[in-house]
Amino acid sequence: STTLVDLSTAHREEVALAYAIDAVDESGLTPVLDRCVACGQRIDSKRPAVFAIDLGGLVCHGCEARSRHRMRLDPRLLSLASMVSRLPRSTGRVARLPQLAPIQTDPLLRLYCAHAGYASGREIRSARMFTEPEAHASRSAAWVEHGSPLAPVNA
After folding, report:
1. Other Cβ atoms within 10 Å of 45 Cβ, number
2. pLDDT at residue 32 in the model
3. Burial class, 43, CB count within 10 angstroms (exposed 0-12 / middle 13-18 / buried 19+)
4. Which of 20, 102, 129, 131 is most deeply packed, by most CB within 10 A?
């Protein structure tokens, strides 16, 4: 897969985010990120947002109490997710990826993993790479030293 190869490049953070977004979308679990999933009200893209994991999308201030499992998000991260999801694909690859850092991608990867896990009723084991600081440090070191941890192994 071209995505696996791309994980060993300088664009590994962007590729991981694009892959997570695409995987969730392709599985039919696309979260609602442009309006309140409870009442339909448009979400102000300039204010901090609340993602209701148990409801499958963003919630407005008035509906926030309906959710027991919430994540607060910087609005810039939602803009980033929206932008990456709209980038053109070429033979399965995201074209023109911006250079991103883990501080930008990890919160969104945590969100997509939490959402997919809750919606599917299954643990997303790879989510630990984005939720545990020690795992993140070892992931980054492994990618720098050895390439992607998902790269094919020569037999």
Report:
1. 13
2. 92
3. buried
4. 20
